[in-house]
Amino acid sequence: MNNLVERVSYLKGLVDGLGINEDTKEGKVLLNIIDVLDDIVNAVSEIDASQSDLDEYIQAVDDDLGDVEEFLYGDYDDDSEYIEVECPHCHQNVYFDDEIFDSEDDLICPNCHNLIYSDDEFEDNDINE
User: Fold this and answer.
1) Among the four residues 18, 84, 92, 116, which has the most C-beta atoms within 10 Å?
2) How close are the terminal C-alpha atoms of the chain, in Å?
3) What is the pTM of this model?
């Protein structure tokens, strides 16, 4: 960005050094072109500064969102394993976190909402053996 400011400043100095003024048609055109270039460089500088501010703001929002997610969901464990089970009722494959098998909860199919597995059934089979 500084390079553009320097180049436009150099052109202004070159025009002044060459004695170009608005007395001729060409002089008017050159001076107006340099003025337009100066305006463009200033506008781009403002956009660049605004973009930097937005980047910082977005990073702060992202950090805050991360804090909220951690508060709501706790530490997310990517080491979870998922077990595929075919529902005996709707015959759809469904996936359960392997930790659900450690609990004593029944497994309900998320598609048809029928019972897939009951801990009571498993205990009954263990007693019969």
Assistant:
1) 116
2) 80
3) 0.48
